Amino acid sequence: MDEPLLPTPSGYRLSLAAAGQAWSWRLTTPEGTSLTGLAPDRTSARRSAAFAAFTAEALTRTRRRRF
Questions:
Q1: Which domain of life does this protein belong to (predicted)?
Q2: Cα–Cα distance, 27 to 29 (Å, whole number)
Q3: Mean pLDDT of 46-64
Q4: Apex CA 29: angle with CA 59 and CA 49, to 5°?
Q5: Domain count, the chain
């Protein structure tokens, strides 16, 4: 299921899925790179994905400035 993050950088897509006793999340960047992880519950999965989105966005901005 694709859901918008609250808040998130634009262009990032989140997918959440129940994975046994945990939740699996997948974040797709605007460039098409996928970042994945596991969390104990749905709320934690959304928060982890949001953190990953902001981290990936910050790294992308840094890369653009340096090169």
A1: Bacteria
A2: 6
A3: 91
A4: 80
A5: 1
